[in-house]
Each structure stands twice: as C-alpha cells, then as structure tokens.
Amino acid sequence: MSWIIIIALAIPVIIILWFVAIYNSLVKLRVRVRDAWAQIDVQLKRRYDLIPNLVNTVKGYAAHEREVLENVTKARQQAIDVRGVAEQAQAENFLTRALRQLFAVVENYPNLKANEHFLALQEELTSTENKIAFARQFYNDTVRTYNTKIQQIPANIIANMFNFQREEFFEIEEAAEREAPVVQF
Description:
79% of the residues lie in helices and 0% in strands. By secondary structure, the chain is mainly α. The chain has one domain: de novo design (two linked rop proteins), CATH 1.20.1440.20.
C-alpha cells in the first residue's frame, strides 16, 4: 500500500517539475531573443554615431552633393526613431541605400578617397556593418529557436497558457538589398 501512495504523490510532483522546466526554458529563450535584439541596437547605435562624421568629412569635398548628404542624414534619423523589428529592418534598408549613394559620390573625389580621416571612418563603418550582420544572424537564429520551441508539443501548451508570442525575424525585404554593398576606393 505504501508504494501506491508514493507513486500517487510522485506523479503530480514530476508533472509540476516538468511544467516548471518547460516554462523556465521558454523564459530563457525569450530573454535570449531580447538580448540578441539589444546587441543589434548597440551596433546600430555605433553605426548612427559614425554617419555624421562621415557626412561632415564628405561635405568638405563635395559641397554640391547636398541632396545625397541630406538623404543620408534623413535616413539615419528615421532609423534612430523607429521601433519594432519590421520597421527597423525597413529603416535600415533605406539607410543602406543612402550610404551606397554617398559612397558612389565619393568615387568622384580622389582627394577625399585618399583622406586619412575618411579612410579611418570608412574602415570603422565597414567593421560596424560586419558586426551588424553578425548580430542580425545571431538574433534570427535565436528567434528561430524560440519560435520553434513555442510551437512544439508539449511546450506549446505552456506557451499558450502564459501568452508567449512569436517573435519577428529581422529580414531584408527587397531582393536587391540582399546583396552586400560594394565600396571601392
């Protein structure tokens, strides 16, 4: 009779521990997704801080290229102001296009291309773009793991009970934007 009582008590305890383990794994994954997004924010902030220096350096050489410089400044501000993954991706696409135009303008100014300050800024921006790409990849990998977990049985039951929502991927919408920008100096 004592084994029946032990088993009867053990089964609910095991179910509760299993429930807690699944819930905690979902929380852990959700926190990792938010941390991954924060890492993208850090790299984007670095990018946004570099852009005014780059624009000011180009201004001295290419004063008549005002529209291109204004587009870069406008795109930067839009990217800073948006919230949410989809809006951020769209703003980043616009900023990348504006930077491509800026670098195309630079091609017309050999003295600017040889300027040490410009070269240092260009190297920093390239490095930052690489870090952003890595952060985006890490974020999307983390989102994939999280989204998969909240859809799989039995975790989906707990995810639905506690309102764990799917996260958005950081995606590039335009096919042309999927190609890396080519900057030649």
